[in-house]
Amino acid sequence: MAALSAPDLVAPAPPVATAVTLRVLRPRVISRLLLVSAMGLLAGTTLLAAVLVWTLAELRLAVRLAEAALQPSLLQAPLPSPERLCDDRAVAVWLERHPDDSLRLHVARAQALIAAGRREDAVAAYTLAAQRGRLGPLQRVVWAEILCDLGDPVAAARVLDGVDLSPLPPDQLPRALAITGQAHLLNRQRSAATTAP
Questions:
Q1: In the chain, what are the domain boundaries?
Q2: Confidence (pLDDT) at 112
């Protein structure tokens, strides 16, 4: 056994009493504090609800404005028939009468040229339309598809660069992704062929 030293044999110190003072608030003070806290919570919640209602109203307005921008105006002149859209002279005459509507005309002309089998001319029409204004994502996908079919994946990748595909209908999204992948694949094949010995 180990020998005990003197400090181990010292008796423990007697317990010291400490006084703890609890301050109990009166019930009236407690009820006032609870009432003030509840009023602050109610005011904060009301303010948050007002902000949410305002934000939803702004979002609804933005959606309505975006939908209205997509709808053709009642004041716009009806476009020529697809046969006339394929005729260069008829398009020139129509553009002289309606110079502010060239974007819509060139997009419709590109679609008519595709239906007529004139894909190179459709690419030129899409190029003119892109110079006149902003094309939608579906028009850009069709344009890129034609460019891929004609063997120009670099131009197709440029057309699709930065295009937001989220507004596309769900049935068109796989097509858009396939065209994007096809343009990328053709571009890689072309660059591999030029670097191979």
A1: 79-135, 136-197
A2: 92
Whether 9 has a pLDDT exceeding 90, the answer reads: no
Token digits of residue 96: 């002289």
Q: Tokens 């919570």 sit at which residue?
A: 41
Residue-wise DSSP of 140-194: HHHHHHHHHHTT-HHHHHHHHTT---TTS-TTTHHHHHHHHHHHHHHHHHHHHHH
Question: Cα(196)–Cα(190) distance, rounded to whole angstroms?
Answer: 10
Q: Tell me, what's the pLDDT at 122?
A: 92
pLDDT, mean over the chain: 81
Contact by Cβ (8 Å): 126, 135: yes
Show contacts of 100-105: CB within 8 Å, 24+ apart.
101/76, 101/77, 102/128, 102/129, 102/132, 103/129, 103/132, 103/133, 104/72, 104/76, 104/79, 105/79
Work out the end-to-end distance of the chain between its first and last CA atoms, rounded to an integer number of angstroms: 90
86 neighbors 112 (Cβ within 8 angstroms): yes
Q: Residue 63: what are its φ and ψ, rounded to 5°?
A: -65, -45
- The pLDDT value recorded for residue 148 is 85
Furthest CA-CA distance within the chain: 120
